Amino acid sequence: MNKQKKISLKSKEGKLGVLLPGMGAVATTFIAGVIAINKKIGKPYGSITQMGTIRLGKRTEKNFPLIKDFISLVEPAQMVFGGWDIFPDNAYETALKASVLEKSLLDNIKDELVSINPWKGVFFPEYVKRLNGTYIKSASTKWDYANLLREDIQKFREEHKLDRIVAIWCGSTEIYLEPEEVHQSLESFEKGLKNNHPSISASMIYAYACLKEKVSFANGAPNLTVDIPAMWELAKKNRIPISGKDFKTGQTLVKTIIAPGLKARMLGIRGWFSTNILGNRDGEVLDDADSFKTKEVSKLGVLEYILQPKLYPELYRELCHVVKINYYPPRGDNKEGWDNIDIFGWLGYPMQIKIDFLCRDSILAAPIVLDLAIFMDLAQRAGFYGIQEWLSFYFKSPMHLPALYPEHDVFIQLMKLKNTLRFLGGEDPITHMGLDYYDYYDLKE
Ligand SMILES: NC(=O)c1ccc[n+]([C@@H]2O[C@H](COP(=O)([O-])OP(=O)(O)OC[C@H]3O[C@@H](n4cnc5c(N)ncnc54)[C@H](O)[C@@H]3O)[C@@H](O)[C@H]2O)c1
Fold this sequence. Notes:
This protein has helices at 25-38, 48-51, 67-70, 91-98, 103-108, 110-114, 142-159, 186-194, 202-212, 229-238, 251-264, 281-286, 289-307, 313-316, 361-382, 410-424, and strands spanning 16-21, 79-85, 119-120, 164-169, 216-219, 241-243, 268-278, 320-327, 336-344, 350-358, 386-387. It has 445 residues and is α/β, with parallel strands linked by helices. The chain starts with 15 loop residues before the first strand and ends in a 21-residue tail after the last helix. Nicotinamide-adenine-dinucleotide binds at residues 21-27, 84-87, 98, 121-123, 128, 131, 170-173, 202, 220-221, 246-247, 249-250, 280-282, 285, 361-362, 364-365.
């Protein structure tokens, strides 16, 4: 069979700057983890770029290399970390306070962590009402703030002699915003920056600064940030990849694993009640109704797209989907997520599924940050720009072109990701049809 044309990838050599706007629990768990992995005192469990394999060719060929052996990917040891926060703690202090990783591990890599100090952040309290940032830049317009962020990026690039940079938003969830006129074009957005338009949030200013500096941008929170036409236009103009929104980690990961299975069996669902207790700073921010609304919209969309109630009205039209998050400090980062799923089967007989997921939020998020840093870099090296739909796998609300609906089914998302890697490596996509192994038709070449 003819192989695909191999895409020419820019070299992976050199140093990759990884910028983290928001250096809290997720960001420091990621940084500490990468340092520990580089020192061989930790393993990158949960990371596809580090542990995943990819089947190439037919099953009879038995060719399953590691993804990182199949396609050239930047290595964790090539990464240099930088970022911003609205509190001045260094990465060691933040990681200690976050209490995700054990002190003994953090002490082992203390020198490296202490040397990572955030730069002052851009912060507007009306967008994150539960935080009172003390370590913030001052400027008179949002345009000036963007320029200050650009200067930080330029200094970072020069100081560390970086070859490429990617940014991953790990900052707090902002209040809910709908796209407005000011977000519709680059011209109106830039005008809004100069006029201090109230609908331009801090995360949008970071994203704008990054795209202007040719830094690709992935959004780990549900904020609009890069998911507005103005940013799509800038990403296209500067040929920079963008992706988002909202890391798919705990309860939503489980939901996108279970729901496609139930639908595949044509089992009906009457109700899906999801509730969480969470006690970290993210939980505190999400305790504010306006920030929670952003998260709620992100979490609720998942089932609608997986179950397709318009195609299967008898099975899913009546579905009642409720999601709650309760801030409960004793649990810290160790979230507990309960799901009660009311399903029905043959002749309408009801059944229930109960899930109690005792998870660790940042432990689930950190490998996603690593994979996104590596794959966003790959995208840029491959000449991809704009929305990176092939990275939907990592997000609760995958960004997509307006004419398309988002793909939420985690198994389709994984196939999309792996087929994109096959495409980049000059291999044929795999359809999993398998008829060509049998003799009914003459499909063998
Ligand atoms: N942990 C998960 O499983 C998970 C899953 C999906 C999404 N997320 C999202 O990832 C983000 C990070 O989560 P976390 O648990 O690390 O939260 P966190 O509260 O520990 O960290 C967020 C950090 O962002 C900082 N920050 C807030 N506004 C800022 C600004 N304007 N500029 C710079 N820094 C700013 C805060 O001071 C804080 O240190 C949140 O938005 C969260 O909703 C996390």
